[in-house]
Amino acid sequence: IEDPPGFAERVEYLLKDWITIFHTPSNSKDMIKAFGGFVNKMNVYGILKGDEPLTRFFRHATQCCIDLTYRNMNDPSWKTKIFQWIDAYVRLIALLVKHSGEGGSTSTKLNLLNKVLGIVVGILMHDQEVHGTAFQQMGYHRIFIMLFLELSAHDPVLENISLSVITAFCHTYHILRPSLAPGFCYSWLELISHRVFIGRILASIPQQKGWSMYSQLLIHLFKYLAPFLRNAELAKPVQHLYKGTLRVLLVLLHDFPEFLCDYHFGFCDVIPPNCIQMRNLILSAYPRNMRLPDPFTPNLKVDMLTDIGGSPRIFTNYAAAITPSSFKKDLDSYLKARSPVTFLSELRSNLQISNEPGSRYNIPLMNALVLYVGTQAIAHIRSKNLGPTMATIVHSAHMDIFQNLAVDLDNEGRYLFLNAIANQLRYPNSHTHYFSCAILYLFVEANSEAIQEQITRVLLERLIVNRPHPWGLLITFIELIKNPAYKFWDHDFVHCAPEIEKLFESVANSCM
Amino acid sequence: MVNNQFGMVGLLTFIRAAESDPNLVTLAMGQDLTALGLNLTSIENLYPSFGGPFADSPARPQDIDYNVPPEYLINVSIREKLSKVTLQKYKDDLLFYLFYTNVGDLMQIAAAAELHSRDWRYHTEEKVWITRVPGMTPYEKNGTTERGTYYYFDAQNWRRVPKEFQVDTVKFDKCPNPSAYVAAMSGQS
Amino acid sequence: PLQKEHQIQFQMMEAAYYHLPTPSDSERLKSYLQRQPVQTPPHYPQQ
Question: Which family does the similarity line name (chain C) (predicted)?
Answer without folding.
Answer: Belongs to the CNOT2/3/5 family.
